[in-house]
TrEMBL record:
The protein's name in its UniProt record: P-type Cu(+) transporter
An example molecular function term from Gene Ontology annotations: P-type monovalent copper transporter activity
Family as reported in the entry's similarity comment: Belongs to the cation transport ATPase (P-type) (TC 3.A.3) family. Type IB subfamily.
Residues of the full protein shown: 407 to 698 of 754
GO CC annotation, single: endomembrane system
Subcellular location, record wording: Cell membrane; Endomembrane system
């Protein structure tokens, strides 16, 4: 490869908001066939808000204040949304002790001398919570509408559900379409549940969806595609994407993400510049052609 054209290409990429950490990444990007997108924070704004609640025991306010207390130490966007809503409603958030976090699941704490927990369906099932008819119907309706659902329990008894919605980025659908025109297939991989993942994929024009993915399952997906001979890029924003970003042929870390995601990627993309991905593929292909 002629260094000069790579240097020029790097300059053009930087103008688009993309920083390549190594020249090799540019060459590999030119040949990418498949790109795996994380959902939350990558294709969505990553700023969810509480859109609805169902309290089957006690009031919605008490459900929210307990959830906000349990989420007081979590850096997850869902946790921030729950705290924001509690503050917005002027609730006094109680003290939480013995906080424990299950990645890709939820949080537990002792609040007012009782065990309280909030998390997704897998987390709830793993703890043997029984969901009544009303809870199930509410959760299903919200998930079908594309929202993320979290269940809450006191002493292992389900006391309510929180539904959170996150907007799809305005340029996300267009990005997926441009990638398709470049012959690159977009896949969705998310820690979120099946129904909201499918709803988001449909809105984005993505047909292959992998839901309820733990960080290690995202990594396994990258490796499986590579084994099948695909050249794979991964775009993600969180520490939970870091192993997959590192293993992909090209890892594209979205710029506002955690340090782990940023350092694991081969390329860094400014958060609002999703469309820079197809632009970068075009630039990299032109560059490689000129080098030859
Ligand atoms: P994503 O791939 O969507 O960025 P994460 O691995 O960060 O997903 O989270 C996956 C799922 O785990 C979330 O959709 C949520 O259901 C659950 N979860 C993660 N962190 C928390 C938390 N602090 N509180 C409640 N649920 C959580
Ligand atoms: Mg994410």
């Amino acid at each position: 490869a002629a260094p000069i054209s790579l240097v020029i290409a790097s300059g053009r990429l930087a103008k688009q908001g993309i920083i390549a950490k190594e020249a090799g990444a540019l060459e590999r990007l030119a040949r990418i066939q498949t790109i795996i997108f994380d959902k939350t924070g990558t294709l969505t704004e990553g700023k969810p808000r509480v859109s609805a609640m169902l309290a089957v025991k006690g009031s919605q306010a008490s459900l929210l204040r307990l959830a906000a207390a349990a989420e007081s130490e979590s850096a997850h966007p869902l946790a921030a949304a729950i705290r924001r809503e509690a503050v917005k409603l002027g609730l006094v958030i109680p003290e939480a002790e013995q906080l424990a976090y299950t990645p890709g699941g939820g949080v537990e704490a002792v609040i007012e001398k009782k065990a309280f927990a909030v998390g997704n369906a897998r987390f709830a099932a793993g703890r043997g919570w029984q969901m009544g008819q009303e809870v199930q119907a509410f959760a299903q309706a919200r998930e079908t509408a594309g929202e993320t659902v979290l269940y809450a329990a006191i002493e292992r008894e389900c006391v309510g559900v929180l539904a959170l919605s996150d907007m799809i980025k305005s340029n996300a659908r267009e990005t997926v379409k441009e990638l398709k025109e470049l012959g690159v297939t977009a896949l969705l991989a998310t820690g979120d549940h099946e129904a909201p993942a499918r709803a988001a994929a449909k809105a984005l024009g993505i047909s292959e969806v992998h839901a309820s993915m733990l960080p290690e399952s995202k990594l396994a997906l990258v490796e499986e595609l590579k084994r099948r001979g695909k050249r794979v890029a991964m775009a993600g924003d969180g520490w939970n994407d870091a192993p997959a970003l590192a293993s992909a042929d090209v890892g594209i870390a979205m710029g506002d993400g955690t340090d782990a995601a940023l350092s694991a990627g081969h390329m860094t993309l400014l958060l609002e510049r999703l469309k820079a991905i197809p632009e970068a593929i075009r630039i990299s292909r032109l560059t490689i052609r000129n080098v030859r």
